[in-house]
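Two proteins follow. First one:
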Amino acid sequence: MNSLEFLHNYCDFSNPNWVWIMTGIARNKDNDAGEKFLRRYVIAKPDDIELCWYEIHALARDPKTLYRIYISLNARDAVKAAFMFQKKMADVTFGLAKGQDDALHLSKKLGSLWKTELAQMHNRGTKRFLLDLDNTNQDKANNIHAYLRDITTVHFVRETVNGYHIVFDACDTRGLMEYCKQISAPVDLQKDSMVFVEQFLGE
C-alpha cells in the first residue's frame, strides 16, 4: 500500500472535532551532514492529506538528507484543544502586557504553539495504541497481529525501516506484552506517538 493510500485509509474524519497531524522530519541520527528539517501540518479533511504530503516532498529537496513522514497515532480533538489553548494564550497576553521578551517571542509563533497543544496526550480524539517492533521478522509480526485480532481491533500493520508498526484500539496489554516476551519479540508500546508513513532521500 503506497503512502497516500495508507494515509487516506488511516485518517478517520467521522467525528467533526477530529484532525490529524502530519510531520515531515529529518532526524539527526539519520543524517550526519544533511539539512535540519521539521514541518507539521494539521489535516482537517481528506483533501488536506495529498496537499500536505506533496508540500513536504516539495520542501524536502536536499539530496544528502534522508527525510521521514509520520502521521499522528491518534486523531486530535480540536475542540478540546481549543479550550486548553485559551490558557496558553492568556499566559502569552499577560506576558505581553508586562513587556516580557519571552511572551513577545511566543506571540510570533502562535501557529507552532497551536500544533504543540493539539499534540498533547490530553487532546487525543481516538484511543489507539502503537506497538513498535524493531528488528523483528515478518513471522513474529504476523503472530502478534493474530494475537491482537483476538482481543481488539487492529487498524494497520505498517512496515517501517527497521521493523513494523502495529496500530490497535486501546485494551489491556498485559497479556500481549507477556506473549511478546515468550516469542522473543522486542517491542515498545506507545499510547500516543506517531506512525511511520515513509522514508525518502531529497531530490
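Second one, unrelated to the first:
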Amino acid sequence: MITLTIDQLVKMFGSPGPGHMSPIQRFFSCGLTLPAWKVLRHSAADCEKEMAAFIKKRDELQTKYGGTILPNNQGLSFSDKEKATAFAAEWEALLETEISIAGDPIKVNDIQTGSLTPNDYACLKPFFVD
C-alpha cells in the first residue's frame, strides 16, 4: 500500500503545470514497466475516490461552519471568529488524515515514457521508493 496524507493528495491534484495537467495526472499518463503497471493499476481509481471523498467532506465542513467562498476562490469568509477557528481545527485534522492507496511505490526507472517535472517528483514522493 502507498500511504499519504490528504494534504499530499490535494497537492497532487491541485497544481496543474505544463499541459494543464496536475502532477498526479501526468504521473498516471506515463508509460510504466509491466511490473510497475501491475502494482499501480488500481492506484489512479483509488486516488480519484479519495479525492471525491475529500471534496465531499470539505463541502460539509464549509456548510457546517457557514463558510462563504471569497471572490476568485481566495479562501473562505466566516460570520464570526469562533466558527472560523472551529473550521480551521477540523480542516487541519482533515488534511493530516492518512490514507492508503492500492499499490506499492515504484522506482523512478520504472517510468518509460512521459515526463515529470522536478516539482512533480517532490509532490509524488509517496509513489516512489528512495
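SUMMARY FIELD: The longest helix spans residues 43-65. Helices lie at 6-13, 23-29, 34-40, 43-65, 81-96, 118-123.
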